[in-house]
């Protein structure tokens, strides 16, 4: 299965001429020889541009590869403009599957004889189509007789088979990388692929996505930053989800946003604030925030609010990782590179033997040139290459639990670059992080902890006398046991001392008896010595230490 899929991937890449996108001088001789050996797989799309060929190849390979293309599409600083533009189509314009098949899936999953049993209207023509699912519009009759404008998300049929094949191949390649690459252990490819497998398979479960949407909506209830559509969970299943239809402008339509008078600076700043709020306040963040999943509400252009969709991938952070991240960000914003280096060592992200001074200098060399510059003047491609080289030099290990966060941060940075290139990312994020750290460490944290725990303390307060009595009683029992144990140890020590004394006399008797028996003297003396030695041995045996159980 893996070899067949590997051949299918190789055939697709070569058939679309993607090997032409890599300069020959970058390829080792073995790969160049292998390409000539596969002479029956020529480039069949020479008439198309490189961007179109790359997009079509990724679409052909399936959802795992489309997701990769979606992430690349947000990094216009790393790609030629024509390729970035074509990859943007992967966000919501993947070739759809048959609308009648989607209707049949909905009817079967919801137990309907016909789609009209539940929906006032249903459009078999998909509104949008992505790598894993597609969306149809309709009107839902709810319990009170009202009719709601909705969208229905339907998982592509038989997609699990393709995903499993690609994931198996990725796991094989990750094992090879971990075993043979010099950086294999540090990069943790197997752990990263394992995390990606979990993330991708979670995205196939629309009940999980519905729960994620409900959680995000609760986190941003009445927020001016982000709106999450209502999910009709009663009509949602593993492969079908019904959700409120929103009316917004795709965040990628920058010209339309500007034409409507949207405050682009505030929109970009609020995007940064939404990200840091999700990560540090809620520890629960939308981890698939590419432009195809983000819209802007039309109601108030001067105070723009984001609308989020597609909640199949979310990330969480534990308290320790969140604390280290916040401290790293603040130290970075304050240009305290020694603090950044020390935090990396304390968190275990780099080995303990790392030279702090050298690590600090390396971080300063990479980061200092990008401060006090707007996004438009920062070459993040150059920065990423330098950071990767620094990480390799200091044996920095990839943290699989942070991969989703890193991907989301790339999306946010790419989004800010499109919306408002003059955005000062550092000045926008720093006040939020400082406020969050003060809330975690200052007097506010103490007050919040008291407020959060007060109900629990009030519940346990009546039990305190009994708990105190039981604790004191248990302490007395423990003290008695310790005293008995001490007495047993003293007794055993005395027994051991007495036994050692008689054993020493017995050994002396054995030596004396042996000497007398070999000497030329009257036989009565050896016999007498032997009798005495036996008596001494018996006494030593009786006085040996015994295990005392009480």
UniProtKB/TrEMBL annotation:
Keyword Transferase attributed: yes
Active site: 288 (proton acceptor)
Keywords assigned by UniProt, alphabetized: ATP-binding, Cell inner membrane, Cell membrane, Kinase, Membrane, Nucleotide-binding, Transferase, Transmembrane, Transmembrane helix, Ubiquinone, Ubiquinone biosynthesis
Function: Is probably a protein kinase regulator of UbiI activity which is involved in aerobic coenzyme Q (ubiquinone) biosynthesis.
Metabolic or biological pathway, per its Swiss-Prot or TrEMBL entry: Cofactor biosynthesis; ubiquinone biosynthesis [regulation]
Domain ABC1 atypical kinase-like: residue ranges: 90-344
A family per Pfam: ABC1
InterPro entries in UniProt: ABC1_dom, Kinase-like_dom_sf, UbiB, UbiB_bact, UbiB_kinase
Top-level taxon of origin: Bacteria
Entry GO CC: plasma membrane
NCBIfam families: PRK04750.1, UbiB
EC number: 2.7.-.-
Gene name tied to this protein: ubiB
Molecular function via GO: ATP binding; protein kinase activity
Record protein name field: Probable protein kinase UbiB
CDD domains named in the record: UbiB (cd13972)
Residues that hold ATP according to the record: 127-135, 153
Protein family per UniProt: Belongs to the protein kinase superfamily. ADCK protein kinase family.
GO BP, sorted A to Z: regulation of ubiquinone biosynthetic process; ubiquinone biosynthetic process
């Amino acid at each position: 299965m893996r070899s067949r899929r590997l051949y299918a991937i190789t055939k697709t890449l070569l058939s679309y001429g993607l090997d032409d996108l890599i300069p020959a001088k970058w390829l080792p001789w073995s790969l160049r020889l292998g390409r000539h050996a596969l002479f029956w797989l020529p480039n069949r799309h020479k008439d198309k541009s490189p961007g179109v060929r790359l997009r079509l190849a990724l679409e052909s390979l399936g959802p795992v590869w489309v997701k990769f293309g979606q992430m690349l599409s947000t990094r216009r600083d790393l790609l030629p403009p024509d390729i970035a533009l074509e990859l943007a189509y992967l966000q919501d314009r993947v070739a759809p599957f048959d609308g009648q098949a989607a209707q049949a899936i909905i009817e079967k999953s919801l137990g309907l004889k016909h789609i009209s049993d539940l929906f006032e209207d249903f459009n078999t023509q998909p509104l949008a189509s992505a790598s894993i699912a597609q969306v149809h519009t309709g009107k839902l009759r709810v319990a009170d007789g009202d009719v709601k404008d909705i969208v229905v998300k339907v998982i592509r049929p038989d997609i699990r088979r393709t995903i499993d094949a690609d994931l198996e191949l990725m796991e094989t390649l990750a094992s090879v990388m971990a075993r043979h690459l010099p950086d294999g252990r540090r990069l943790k490819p197997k752990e990263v692929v394992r995390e990606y497998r979990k993330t991708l398979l979670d995205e196939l479960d629309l009940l999980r996505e519905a729960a994620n949407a409900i959680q995000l909506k609760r986190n941003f209830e009445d927020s001016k930053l982000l709106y999450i559509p209502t999910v009709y969970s009663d009509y949602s299943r593993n492969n079908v989800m019904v959700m409120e239809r929103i009316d917004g402008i795709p965040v990628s339509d920058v010209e339309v946003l500007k034409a409507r008078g949207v405050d682009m600076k505030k929109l970009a700043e609020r995007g940064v604030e939404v990200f840091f709020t999700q990560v540090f306040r809620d520890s629960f963040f939308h981890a698939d925030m590419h432009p195809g999943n983000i819209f802007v509400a039309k109601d108030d252009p001067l105070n723009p609010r984001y609308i989020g969709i597609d909640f199949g991938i979310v990330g969480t952070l534990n308290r320790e990782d969140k604390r280290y991240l916040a401290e790293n960000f603040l130290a970075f914003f304050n240009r305290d590179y020694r603090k950044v280096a020390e935090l990396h060592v304390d968190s275990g992200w780099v080995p303990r033997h790392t030279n702090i001074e050298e690590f600090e200098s390396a971080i300063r060399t990479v980061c200092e040139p990008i401060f006090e510059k707007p996004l438009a003047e920062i070459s993040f491609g150059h920065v990423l290459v330098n950071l990767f080289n620094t990480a390799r030099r200091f044996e920095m290990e990839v943290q699989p639990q942070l991969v989703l966060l890193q991907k989301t941060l790339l999306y946010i940075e790419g989004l800010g670059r499109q919306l408002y290139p003059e955005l000062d990312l550092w000045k926008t994020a720093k006040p939020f992080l400082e406020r969050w750290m003060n809330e975690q460490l200052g007097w506010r944290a103490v007050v919040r902890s008291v407020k959060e725990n007060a109900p629990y303390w009030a519940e346990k307060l009546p039990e305190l006398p009994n708990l105190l009595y039981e604790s004191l009683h248990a302490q007395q029992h423990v003290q008695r046991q310790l005293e008995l144990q001490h007495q047993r140890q003293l007794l055993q020590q005395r027994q051991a001392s007495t036994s050692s004394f008689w054993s020493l006399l017995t050994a002396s008797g054995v030596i004396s008896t042996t000497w007398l028996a070999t000497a030329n003297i009257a036989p009565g003396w050896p016999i007498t010595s032997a009798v005495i030695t036996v008596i001494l041995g018996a006494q030593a045996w009786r006085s040996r230490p015994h295990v005392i159980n009480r």
